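Convert to structure. Protein one:
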Amino acid sequence: MTVEHIDRERDESTPPGPRCAASTGLAFTIAQPPSVRQPQAMDRERLATARRLAQSQDGVVSRRQLYAAGLSEIHVRRAVESGRWRMHGRQTVAVHTAPLDVVARRWRAVWEVGESIAAIDGVTALQAAGMKGYEDDRVHVSAKHNHNTVATRGITVHKIIRRVPDEVLASGVPRVRPAVAAVRAAHWAVSDRQAALVLLMTVQQKLTTPPLLAAAQRSVRGRTRRAFISAVVRDIASGVESLGELDFARRCRRRGLPEPSRQVVRHGARGRIYLDVRWDCCDLVVEIDGAHHRQGLNVMMDNLRQNALVLAGDRVLRIDVIAASRVRVRLVQEACASSPISSSTRLPLHTPTPAAGSMYSAVTSDRRIHRTAGGAGRRTVRGAGGRSRHRGPRRG
């Protein structure tokens, strides 16, 4: 038997492997033991399992989920060091190396703060529910005040005293219901204007209803601007749907005008007509026009609605949001005063003076002033920090 026949028989009976030559000149093979090939196949299987877990979470998965699926810390570290995965904090693992998108950053915020105690809240929860037109790059998360949390870049943690029953939705990213999230976002806002905007946008975009918002306002007890939020929620419940209508309603109250009817529904030749404000006592309708009323065919549609109201016997005032506030209220006062009604029901043309012994309260964005009739009493000014200081009577 020749050397070639010996080599051929060895090749047929021996699994493929690295060849080496012996001193005798005969070629032979060394088979790899199963323990050397098994980890590579198991790593591929674990990688596929991790990708399946992250598929429904926009490419991210937590360490707890990986360990529950059978991966160990060594497997996670090996995948990160090889450049297949990337860590985004202590608990978040991305099964890719691209930047995280919006939903992935929300998952990361919940995992980094604490999966069992955290839920996205405030503006972030409203954006997850579908709010449009409001930009905030930070991820707002709420957690109970008795839990310790670690500061993480891009995440704003808000400590709350208690949670409202059934406020957290478990489907998808843990998030707070829109009504509760809107009230908390108003408490966490940087100004009263921003707080009112969040509340109005939540109802305007049909994320919640005014009754649910009012119930959440009574349940959620924030640390700031409680009286202001309560007043805004009452205005929303009465029909206010925009910041322009909210400002107009407050200025009318300061001028002593009675409360009008809001969002009145009329039926015209082209269907239903929704009126922003209407005083039944003098058949006066006020439309607060924002910038969108000047776009496209909105001007023509507004004119047709106005013509239908005038023909039905109403008087219509169209006021732009950017108009001066005093001019807006003065127009309403003059229109009401010139209406053919009795003097007993005619609306005042001046700002009424509070009766003796009554209290007039004006809430502004940075302070709250209380004064008695005629300015005879002492004034209490509360700053943004809650500290009170007393001043003497107002002069002039």
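Protein two, convert as well:
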Amino acid sequence: MARKGLEMKTWTLFAALSVTLMAGCGDKKEADKADDSLKAASTDDALPAGLTAEQAAKVVAKVGERSITVGDVTRQINRLSPYIRRRWAAPEKRKEFLDKLVRVELLSQEAERLGLGDDPEIQRTLKQVMIRLFVKDVLEKDVLPSSVPEAELKAEYEKEIDKYKRPEQVRASHIVVATKTEATKLIAELKQNTTDARVFREKAREASLDAESKDRGGDLGYFSKPAQRREDEPLIDPKVAEAAWTLANIGDLYAEPVQTSKGFHVIKLTNKRPEMNRTFDSVKRIIESRLLRDKRKEAMDKYVADLRGKSKVEVFAENLDKLKVEVSPEEMEMPPGMMPGGMPPGMIAPPPSRDKTGAPAAAGALPKKAEQAVKGNSARGKAVKAAEDE
């Protein structure tokens, strides 16, 4: 009896993994549904809603010594998204869905017969599924926080108030020259072309005496009125700031040179930024998301550190030098932490193709090595090829 229960759980996990792999090709809702599939696989003895124990136990197909019951088919259909589930609601479609489950079972049994249950690639996949179940069923309940106290959110808001409240600001550029005559001439020249911002930037790089800003084309950044200046703003000479604030339109030049201890400034308004006043309620979710992410990472890191402390972990770093990693030019251009196809490391890669109806994939659901091994036998290879062509 125990053996039968183990086989049933193995079958349920394999079928759930098929649904998970298909969901990997879809959107977030599909991924969430796949997580529910994995969770359901760990509690597969639970009766599907609306079925009695007697109804759920009715056998609809047998594949070798293993039975597929009404409960099994119901669970697999219910684990699909509502949109896909509707396709299988019609009685005439249920036989087709069952046929696909039979195909999954046939191929999984054949893979087991060939000894592929011990294949490293399959073991890695099962380990990933097991970790996902462990995180969902254990860590999510007992270790990882799911919310942040309101008082802590408000304290964080006040701590970072400058991110959410800011006075109106302007952005300006300047060119600093040695004499008023030179500055006046430069203003007249620049007024001939106020629409092309490149002209001012090129002049600043060429002629400005302000070493700090000339390489930026004279850009001073955003700043408030002198009386409202904040510590995180650039330090602008009050005379320059006041002149910039008198300009009404983006692209305007201050009519005359502004003299400071650095020399004579030619000033241009390049942008404006309105006042920002974001209330606590408007940013609460943003703050909570960030704090919760940090808290969950901290809790997970601590949990793993505790496990590491209880276990014997040996690292032989010197052997890392022996690694031979092949990186293609395409992979070199990818953002750090991404894999070909946009999959982050640690995720279960989807099969090359999937059934558009959402039913469990057959040959596509097998790991690559398992599929190759099955195809390696000519008789079985023909059967798999026929299944793929349908």
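The CA atoms of residues 26 and 172 lie 47 Å apart. The beta strands are 59-63, 66-69, 165-166, 169-177, 219-223, 258-260, 263-273, 276-277.
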